[in-house]
Amino acid sequence: MNQDRRDRLRDAAVAVLAESGGRGLTHRAVDAAADVPTGTAKNYFPSRDALLRAVAERCLEQYRALAASLAGAGPGPADPDGLAALLAGLLRDVAGPGRPRVLAYLELQTEGTRRPWLAALLDPIAAADFAAHAHLLRAAGLPAGAERARALTLALHGAVPHLLAGAPATLAAAGLDDLDRFARGLLAAVRPEGDR
Fold first, then answer.
1. In 3D, which of 61, 15, 52, 12 has the Cα closest to residue 36?
2. Three-state DSSP state, 7
């Protein structure tokens, strides 16, 4: 099989899933998005489960590439202000250029509630965030115990659907209408009283 075409189909499938949701992810829709002859996606991914697996694998590759680029940028921000800027930047990516990838990932998580094999395939993405955030807290000179890393990770994960929906009243109520302020407040919330 042609790897370039396979990757093109997987990227098209990510876009279709992000744009049309789980019900819209069909072989025909992927063919159209990839601008290939009808039946091409089915040749590469014969079943809907195979198509879902291909999207999950592509999302995992994209996540690992993003993590590698962040890791390649050095050991992480050296202070809380730098970490707050990094977190705000990651959240901006969710609402901006990373939006299709993140929407597709959330759609896959929903599908994973009915397909344990898919949930297992996606597990490394969310699981890695806990360790990554603990590392970033330590690099910034902040306490990085398991509870603080969990609180930070879960708060960031919880912010994602609201950023994607973009409802102004909810964004304002959650403090997500100012991502720099949100990130600084989040870091302040996970610091012990004596360290503030």
1. 12
2. helix
